[in-house]
Amino acid sequence: MQRKNKSDLLKELKTKEEILKARIANLEARQRKEEDRILTRKKILIGAHILDKIKNDEAARRLLTQELNHFLTRAIDRKLFDLP
How many angstroms separate the Cα of 16 from the Cα of each of 23, 76, 80? Predict the structure, then answer.
């Protein structure tokens, strides 16, 4: 069995390192994508719940409008909720 010289061993290890870095980056990206998907689903469900709640509850609608008035700063977002 022939021993690898240090240069070949170093090259081999660096190649393995690059492969591992790529796999790590791929797994991290997939994990972030899954976390984003879960967060989006939560936002949709919370929004649906609030819309259902304010449909027949005037006090809840006023409270939400007050909260949105303080929270929303972009004109396009404010217009969506008929805020000045």
Answer: 11, 50, 52
